[in-house]
Amino acid sequence: MFTNTLFLLSAALTVGGAIAVVYSQNLMHACIYLLASFFGVAGLYACIGADFLAATQLVVYAGGVVILMLFAIMLTGGTGNNINRYGLEKIAAMGNKKTYFFAGITAILASLVVLKIIANVLKDQPSTLLTSNEPTVERIGTILATDHILAFEISSVLLLGALIGAAVISRPRKERHD
Amino acid sequence: MINLGSYLAISFALFICGILVMIARKNIIAILLGIELILNASALNFAAYTKFANNNLDGHIMSLFIIVTAAAEAAVGLGIIIRFFQLRESIHIDDAASLQN
Amino acid sequence: MNSTVVTYLSQSKELTDATAWLSKVLGLDASSLVAFIIFAVACLIVVGLMSTIGGLGTYAERKISADLQMRVGPNRVGPYGILQFLADGVKMILKEDIIPSGADRFTFILAPFLCLVGVFATLAVVPFSSGFILADLNVGIFYLVGMASLVGVGVFLGGYASNSKWSMLGGMRGASQIISYEIPATITIISIVLLAGGLSMGTLIGGQGGMPQEWYLFHNPFAFIGFFVYFIAALAETNRAPFDLPEAESELVSGYHTEYSGMRFGLFALAEYIEVFVVCGVATALFLGGYKVPFDLGTGAILVQKLGLNEMLAKNIGQILELGAFFTKTLALYYVVIWVRWTLPRLRVDQLMTLCWKYLTPIAIFNLLGCAVWMYAFDGRSIFSLIFDATTVVAGHH
Lengths: 178, 101, 398
Description:
The complex is a heterotrimer of chains A (178), B (101) and C (398).
Chain A: H1 2-23, H2 27-47, H3 51-76, H4 97-123, H5 137-146, H6 149-169
Chain B: H1 4-24, H2 28-52, H3 58-88
Helix pairs in contact in B: 1-2, 2-3
Chain C: E1 3-4, H1 5-9, H2 13-26, H3 31-68, H4 84-94, H5 105-122, E2 135-136, H6 140-148, H7 150-161, H8 165-196, H9 201-206, H10 221-237, H11 263-287, H12 301-307, H13 311-341, H14 349-378, H15 383-397
Antiparallel strand pairs in C: 1-2
Helix pairs in contact in C: 3-4, 3-11, 5-6, 5-7, 5-11, 7-8, 8-10, 8-14, 10-11, 10-14, 11-13
């Protein structure tokens, strides 16, 4: 009973947050709704027993990526619709009816494609014996160090590159390069 | 209620919302929000399959690497956006069209 | 499954009898209902206790600072002024609730609650005693680190939403300070996790003992340095002096909570004091042996042996002893935090960032490598056990 309640709440938070991100007109509010969506996804991970994954989602996404987005919004000063000096003939930055119309058409096409693929799964539900949730931390640690060691090392190099690259690209420069 | 179909439905909804955000918005940072939604949808998909289809932890490992890659890509993407803002003083995506025509 | 308050209490016969009776009365399996009720009561107790400790923290701060400055401090409201925090609370509730007209209403109202939610959510894994952890998650310490970063989001949004220059600067400085100092704190936590072998609070404390030589503080020199690194980083994470530039009164007119008045400001202050307690609690759990009582009194086994008590009663007495040990160690660290605030001058923002990135982070990484090498070379034994074994070998040869 608890797991079902948790699942419903997390699902509502996730999808509600995502829909709010689509339709909100203020970029700061959109970031906050994205934070709510991340919390919902962490709850969904917890429902299927992925405890380490839920904690990682909280630490990395809710604690890292959202603050990063908020800082970038502050440093580039744009939460409204006229974020351009010459804002007159540009399309409104947070979307108007025309952009949402095209987005809606793309979404319908994409959903048709995806539904065709997953219709088989949704049609015949395999026997859903919920296995009990065991702790996963130790097993994930062992797998990362034995089976997937290459991906682990490459991701560390990737993170190092991202760290240095982001710092080098956006540091303030003395004169303008064009 | 907790079965593979419902998890697929949720990740599908997240994916569609991500696509909507990416196409409907013209603010580059808002587009990055959509990318994060899509990556979350795929990570949720992997984790759901590893729980309901086969019970080893490969899906969890894949979701972990998706989270790691998404964080790195958000950092680099926002670095590029800040540099773009330093050059053009605008974060409207139609101002990034100098390679067009 | 994780062990929680409910699993501890369900060892008692009275609870199983009550659950069976309730199942008979209601006609359906009442174990989850009883679990829910126990969780609700335990959460109410923890939230109420922590809010009182937060309020008493303000009182303790004023009294200790008065002692350091040879004043008296509050002594009018109640005996020795101990009800001063209640008077402050009443004053804050009665103040007018002003929202600046240019402020972003939604974010302005949300920011104190984000700070408060981030801090109260960490209370779920703070190990008060071996039976009274609300939820001994398998990923306990990791979850705590994640929820503590929510406070940074709250600080930043509070600064942004006030629509004023001072608040914006204070908010950005506060958020950048919090996310920078998370790194040495998390790396030090990881080095202690290496020593213990698990992320759950029970494993971390289970690897230590009651006597000081069994604490992780004295396990190896790297953990000793790690304690100070963690303490400094955690002080900076809670925006606590000497790192309180975001709320510096003489420079930024109170920083990110300038525009907050009345109870909204009270929520920010309460979140800060409770976060200091949680951080001290985590430092106790990681380095000072947590709730472990010397001479193994906490498990109640000795009481059953020596005094011949009922087993559940002995366990409860052991739990109370463990609670006392945890609170003693945590409040001692709390005193040190308050003492440091009123002794050291404030750091400038570039000194703050230099301290984090150029000093604490390399030291933390060095500690992590040192702990890993120690675990491999000496098979995970502490320095005291090595000396003790060496002396017994030497004594045995003679």
